[in-house]
């Protein structure tokens, strides 16, 4: 996991950048770092260009499609989706840390799926207009 989970909240909450702009800039910032970081591996022959080419095409198409979707989506919807991603990521990091420290046994994969489904249901409820208090509306 890269630093994308931290870039968007920092840009939005601390720097005052609008959420949609912060989400778009996050991808650009991380993409620039990834472009530079990949060269040593490519020059050492650790990355086979034939296998990396489909990934590159997917990145470009995903960026274009994501930008078009981001134009049409409300900022509050983006906020709920990002909160869901952060909650699920933090669950995974906390359980991994507790397992590494020896406080808990390995968590079965089914538990991660159940947690993901619960978070997705919460995000879906937040995206509906039936709960205006969740969206910060009156």
Give structural notes.
The protein is built from five helices and no strands. It folds into two domains: 1-73, no CATH class; 74-138, no CATH class. The chain is globular and about 50 Å long. It is an all-alpha fold and 138 residues long. The mean pLDDT is 84.
Topology overview:
Elements: H1 4-14, H2 19-43, H3 49-72, H4 75-101, H5 109-127
Note the quaternary state here.
single chain
Series of H and E elements: HHHHH
Output the number of helix runs: 5
Structural class: mainly alpha
Helix content: over 70%
Any idea how many domains?
A: 2
**Average residue-wise pLDDT:** 84
Low-confidence runs (pLDDT<50, min 5 residues)?
none
Report the β-strand fraction as a percent range: under 5%
Quick one: overall form? globular
What Rg is obtained from the alpha carbons, in whole angstroms?
18 Å
Features:
transmembrane; transmembrane helix; 5 helices; TM_pro_TauE-like; 138 residues; membrane; 2 domains; globular; mainly alpha
Short précis:
The chain is mainly α and 138 residues long. The chain has 5 helices and no strands.
């Amino acid at each position: 996991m890269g630093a994308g989970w931290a870039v968007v909240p920092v840009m939005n909450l601390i720097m005052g950048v609008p959420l949609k702009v912060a989400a778009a800039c996050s991808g650009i910032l991380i993409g620039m770092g990834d472009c530079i970081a990949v060269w040593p591996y490519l020059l050492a022959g650790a990355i086979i260009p034939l296998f990396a080419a489909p990934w590159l095409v997917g990145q470009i198409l995903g960026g274009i499609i994501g930008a078009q979707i981001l134009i049409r989506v409300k900022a509050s919807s983006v906020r709920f989706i990002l909160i869901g991603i952060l909650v699920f990521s933090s669950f995974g990091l906390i359980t991994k840390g507790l397992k590494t420290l020896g406080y808990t046994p390995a968590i079965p994969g089914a538990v991660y799926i159940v947690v993901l489904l619960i978070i997705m249901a919460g995000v879906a409820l937040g995206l509906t207009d039936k709960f205006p208090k969740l969206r910060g509306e009156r």
